[in-house]
Amino acid sequence: TFGCGAAIASSSLATEWVKGKSVDDALKIKNSDIAKELCLPPVKLHCSMLAEDAIKAALKDYKVKQQPEKSDV
């Protein structure tokens, strides 16, 4: 695991919140909610932004992989 304590905590909380949610509900998780829950100081807000970005990137990848493959016709 890499990152400071705030980054690890933000990522951990984000994964807990994502579990069991639909894609649309998971996309509603915002860095400000993560920061508020963890009481992050302003200097550590970027850690919660990384967690939100990771959620969005993972869900974007998931959506791409769920699309039917295009045949080479």
Written overview of the protein:
It comes from Trichonephila clavata. It is a single chain. The protein has helices spanning 5-18, 23-26, 31-38, 45-66. It is mainly alpha-helical and 73 residues long. The protein starts with a helix and ends in a 7-residue tail after the last helix. The mean pLDDT is 93.
Q: Which class best fits the helix and strand makeup? A: mainly alpha
Detail the poorly predicted runs.
none
| Tally of helical runs | 4
Number of DSSP strand runs: 0
Overall outline:
elongated
Main beta sheet: none
State the order of secondary-structure elements, H for helix, E for strand. Answer: HHHH
Helix-residue proportion: 55-70%
Distance between the termini: 44 Å
User: Compute the gyration radius: what is it?
Assistant: 15 Å
Mean pLDDT: 93
The share of residues in extended strands comes to under 5%
List the helices and strands and how they pair.
Blueprint: H1 5-18, H2 23-26, H3 31-38, H4 45-66
Helix pairs in contact: 1-4, 3-4
Name the descriptors.
NIF_FeS_clus_asmbl_NifU_N; 73 residues
Short account of what is shown:
This protein has helices spanning 5-18, 23-26, 31-38, 45-66. The chain has 73 residues and is mainly alpha-helical.
